[in-house]
């Protein structure tokens, strides 16, 4: 009787048909693919979380200089001097600023909130009360556009006009009253301002197209 040839198959595959062995290999391959997907998802989630945390953690009291990589130095209005973007304690005055409303400079930092004046940056949207300068600057730093209006009595028509130039869901836009401005309307972005007494949709849209999401820490979309 010839000697029995020893098999090199693992114990868990001995006695399996060819089809069963193929099914076993497919199962192992699918398991490896699932584990790889889980790892990729976990890494992506961690990166996104770290990015969001970086927006909320104070950067210290030292003066920070703005990155010019994302700025638009051209467009319909002149770019203003950079007053920095250092973080200061909420409640502390950051001015004096070069313009009213301001377009850069020291600003507050807290967790985003709808509560005024504690939230900095403030949530995008329309407000019935003025936002402090130190809050506005933080939103501008993240690529936002702010439409301020100075209206003493019935402001519904002016508000509706200003809302008409805000696109889509209003991400990266703030509409708020600003008493004691020298004009009825002031639109601001990081280091840019345009002021007018009469609503001018073409002029406002030109400003928005030139300067929306053009700031040192632009955050596209409605993250706040």
SSE order and pairing:
Elements: H1 18-56, E1 87-88, E2 107-108, E3 125-126, H2 133-141, E4 145-149, H3 156-163, E5 173-177, E6 185-189, E7 192-196, H4 201-211
Parallel strand pairs: 1-2, 3-5, 4-5
Antiparallel strand pairs: 4-6, 6-7
Strand order of the largest sheet: 3-5-4-6-7
Helix amount = 25-40%
Largest beta-sheet characterization = 5 strands, mixed
Strand content: 5-15%
Rg of Cα set: 28 Å
* N-to-C CA distance: 81 Å
The total strand number stands at 7
Low-confidence segments? 54-66
The structural domain count equals: 2
- Helix tally equals 4
Sheet/helix structural class: alpha/beta
Q: What does the overall shape look like?
A: elongated
What's the helix-strand series? HEEEHEHEEEH
Mean pLDDT: 81
3D architecture notes:
The protein is α/β, with parallel strands linked by helices. It has two domains: 11-55; 62-211, no CATH class. Helices cover 30% and strands 12% of the residues. It contains four helices and seven strands. It has helices at 18-56, 133-141, 156-163, 201-211, and strands at 87-88, 107-108, 125-126, 145-149, 173-177, 185-189, 192-196. Strands 3-5-4-6-7 form a five-stranded mixed beta sheet. It has a two-stranded parallel sheet with strand order 1-2. A hairpin with a 2-residue loop joins β6 and β7. Residues 54-66 have low confidence and may be disordered.
Defining traits:
224 residues, alpha/beta, five-stranded mixed β-sheet, 4 helices, elongated
